[in-house]
């Protein structure tokens, strides 16, 4: 519980995320989603209850760095998470902290930069990059730790549409390569990419299910301060105008399909 | 306009001097300073100047950069040489008018001082022109490493320097933005007298500070997430290497100092 706050920021939350899953966490400002994320890698400790990461309990002092290298985090502001003045030096920051031998750090850095498509920018200064590119450098910094799980804490909220598309594509690729992904976001169109959506409200889990199940209940979503994804919202409007569009439409492609069927 | 400011004054290149170990360059610069102070005659300064000119030619730094580094200290040079010119009363009087007297040793000393400051600034600039800021901080961290024994936070200081360098362009950009925002609301930042202008900066500085503190907090959390735990047990991807070219560089510097000492002993003016 935060000082001066009446209720706990996160309360009575029981969730379990399995390896390789792609989970989106939605919720309005102050719903506790970022606070929840900070429990995943021991930035915060719960007042009561436990958090277990890969069979390690976060309250165990001796495991802090093992947990932090297992769960990497990418934050909202791309500028505020880059430490070094050269891209490759920044990616090397985490492995350097872990005391890994120099030749292996070099391998990891090159590998990480290649897998986010930033290898040719390795000698650049961070301020020469766009927001989307900086976020990909931040992701490379996490990959160089060889984390099994990557948490994105509103990582796309300060990016332009192009940067956001780049980021969404990178996240998807990481998940396909086997990483567990937890994407905390404000954008419904990002959430539909996930296997599973968790909706938080007032520090509790309101909904937990597949995107198709979650976005079926417009009323409940609006109570939680959320919208439908664009295509689903349009489908809903058309349905209310009496068009015969089946429920559960999520993406633009599906909507196009439905409309073509009607014509 | 604020964006024109570059961090440090690194001037890229792959020359012999660029490739020297930064630790070696720091020591060599210190030795050069010592040589400048040890030299007691103009011949010595001639040798140092020649040495510096050769260094600049090897490093491929254009000579206009020398002028650029000297420009800001011209007032100091002029001021100190004038002081010396008028206040040294020893030696033969060359020129006298009422209470002003210029002596030959005054003139000599004034020229001496100009030569000294000149060599110091041009020599010190060379290291910043040819060494990346990050290499410099790495070099400083490594050179001052032994101070850890007396509990001096060497790693922390080097890390602070790195982060400061990293955030200079970010904060400059932010200052630009805040200034535009304040101007858009009618603030006049570049009119009026000095006092008025300084006062007008307050509404720029306050938001800048608040945001800098926020950034510092975010960065600290991000560093913790990446397992930062101080300098203990840390490795480096790029290890500094004292190689063959460093031996050549050090040898050249030793020869220079030996030359200056010989000139001093022989009493060549």
Show unreliable segments of chain A: 1-5
Main sheet overview of chain A: 6 strands, mixed
Strand content of chain A: 5-15%
Greatest interface by residues involved: A-B, 39 and 31 residues
Query: What is the spatial order of strands in the main beta sheet of chain A?
Result: 4-5-6-1-7-8
Alpha-carbon distance between the termini of chain A?
55 Å
Shape of chain B: flat
Q: Biggest sheet of chain B: strands, sense, closure? A: 2 strands, antiparallel
Question: What is the C-alpha radius of gyration of chain A, as a whole number of Å?
Answer: 20 Å
Give start-end ranges of low-pLDDT stretches of chain B.
1-7
Please, how many helices of chain B?
10
Layout of secondary structure:
The complex is a heterodimer of chains A (263) and B (269).
Chain A: E1 22-26, H1 33-39, E2 52-53, E3 56-57, H2 64-70, E4 71-74, H3 87-91, H4 93-97, H5 102-115, H6 131-143, E5 149-153, H7 161-176, E6 180-184, H8 188-191, E7 196-201, E8 204-209, H9 211-214, H10 218-223, H11 230-240, H12 252-262
Helix pairs in contact in A: 5-6, 6-7
Chain B: H1 16-19, H2 22-38, H3 42-59, H4 63-70, H5 74-87, E1 93-97, E2 100-103, H6 104-130, H7 133-143, H8 154-184, H9 194-225, H10 244-266
Antiparallel strand pairs in B: 1-2
Helix pairs in contact in B: 2-6, 2-7, 2-10, 3-6, 3-10, 5-6, 7-8, 8-9
Structure commentary:
The complex is a heterodimer of chains A (263) and B (269). Chain A has helices at 33-39, 64-70, 87-91, 93-97, 102-115, 131-143, 161-176, 188-191, 211-214, 218-223, 230-240, 252-262, and strands at 22-26, 52-53, 56-57, 71-74, 149-153, 180-184, 196-201, 204-209. With 263 residues, chain A is of the alpha/beta class. In chain A, a hairpin with a 2-residue loop joins strand 7 (196-201) and strand 8 (204-209). The longest helix of chain A is centred in the middle third of the chain and has 16 residues, at 161-176. Chain B is flat, with a radius of gyration of 24 Å. Chain B starts with 15 loop residues before the first helix and ends with a helix. With 269 residues, chain B is mainly alpha-helical. In chain B, strands 1-2 form a two-stranded antiparallel ribbon. In chain B, 69% of the residues lie in helices and 3% in strands. In chain B, helix 2 (22-38) crosses helix 7, helix 3 runs parallel beside helix 6 (104-130) and helix 3 packs antiparallel against helix 10. Classes of the chains: A alpha/beta (263), B mainly alpha (269). The interface between A and B is medium-sized, with 39 and 31 residues.
């Amino acid at each position: 519980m935060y000082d001066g706050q009446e209720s706990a920021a996160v309360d009575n939350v029981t969730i379990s995320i399995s390896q390789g899953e792609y989970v989106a966490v939605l919720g309005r400002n102050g719903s506790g989603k970022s606070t929840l994320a900070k429990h995943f890698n021991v930035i915060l400790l719960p007042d009561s209850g436990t958090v277990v990461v890969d069979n390690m309990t976060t309250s165990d002092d001796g495991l802090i760095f093992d947990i932090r290298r297992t769960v990497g985090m990418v934050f909202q502001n791309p500028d505020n998470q880059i430490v070094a003045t050269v891209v490759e030096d920044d990616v090397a920051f985490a492995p350097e902290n872990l005391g890994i031998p120099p030749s292996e750090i070099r391998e990891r850095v090159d590998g990480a930069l290649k897998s986010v498509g930033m290898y040719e920018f390795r000698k650049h200064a961070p301020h020469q990059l766009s927001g989307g590119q900086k976020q990909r450098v931040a992701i490379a910094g996490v990959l160089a730790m060889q984390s099994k799980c990557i948490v994105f804490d509103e990582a796309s909220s300060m990016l332009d549409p192009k940067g956001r598309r780049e980021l969404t594509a990178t996240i998807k690729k990481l998940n396909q390569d086997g990483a567990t992904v937890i994407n905390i976001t404000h954008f419904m169109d990002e959430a539909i990419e996930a296997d599973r959506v968790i909706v938080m409200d007032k520090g509790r889990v309101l909904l937990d299910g597949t995107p198709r199940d979650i976005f079926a209940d417009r009323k409940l979503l609006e109570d939680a301060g959320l919208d439908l994804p664009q295509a689903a919202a349009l489908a809903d409007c058309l349905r209310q105008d009496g068009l015969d569009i089946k429920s559960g439409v999520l993406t633009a492609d599906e909507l196009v399909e439905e409309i073509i069927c009607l014509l | 306009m604020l964006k024109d400011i570059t961090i440090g004054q690194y001037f890229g290149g792959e020359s012999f001097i660029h490739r020297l170990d930064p630790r070696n360059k720091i020591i060599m610069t210190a030795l050069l300073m010592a040589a400048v102070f040890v030299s007691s005659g103009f011949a010595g300064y001639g040798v140092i100047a020649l040495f510096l000119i050769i260094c600049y030619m090897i490093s491929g730094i254009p000579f206009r950069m020398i002028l650029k580094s000297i420009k800001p200290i011209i007032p100091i040079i002029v001021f100190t040489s004038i002081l010396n010119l008028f206040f040294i009363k020893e030696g033969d009087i060359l020129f006298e008018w009422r209470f002003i007297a210029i002596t030959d040793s005054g003139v000599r000393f004034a020229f001496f001082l100009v030569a000294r400051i000149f060599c110091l600034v041009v020599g010190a600039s060379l290291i910043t022109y040819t060494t990346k800021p990050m290499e410099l901080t790495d070099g400083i961290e490594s050179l001052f490493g032994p101070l850890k024994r007396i509990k001096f936070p060497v790693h922390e200081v080097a890390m602070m320097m790195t982060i400061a360098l990293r955030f200079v362009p970010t904060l400059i950009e932010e200052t630009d933005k805040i200034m535009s925002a304040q101007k858009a609301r009618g603030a006049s930042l570049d009119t009026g007298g000095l006092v008025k202008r300084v006062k007008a900066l307050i509404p720029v500085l306050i938001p800048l500070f608040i945001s800098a503190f926020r950034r510092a907090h975010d960065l600290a959390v991000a560093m913790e997430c990446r397992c930062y735990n101080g300098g203990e047990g840390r490795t480096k991807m790029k290890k500094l290497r004292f190689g063959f070219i460093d031996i050549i560089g050090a040898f050249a510097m030793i020869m220079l100092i030996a030359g200056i000492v010989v000139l001093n002993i022989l009493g060549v003016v």
